[in-house]
Amino acid sequence: MKKLIAYCGLDCEKCEAFIATLNNDKALREKVAKEWLELNSVEITPEMINCEGCRVDGVKTPYCDKYCQIRQCARNKAYETCGNCAEMESCQTVGMVIFNNAEAAGNLKNKGKL
Question: What is the DSSP string of 37-79?
Fold first, then answer.
């Protein structure tokens, strides 16, 4: 499985937090922090927008590192991604991503083989 496919199937290489980190882009960090603040109604500052990928060693946003229920579940079950879970199709936790994002669902069903 491609390492920059997150546990939920999203492609980290397309994530603006990953891109901002990779390019050390202050303006993009500010944009992402503002968008995520509006979406999540929690304090998110540009300094928090640092991520090197969900499943790789390195820095992660505070949400992804400590609070993402999808990431925590897959790690607790020692799954490479949710695509390894027999309950994926009916799981409400990962369902909030894969039911709304066909690419993420496809990545999990194809085990991230590109």
Answer: HHHH-S---GGG---S-TTSSS---HIIIII-HHHHHHHHTT-
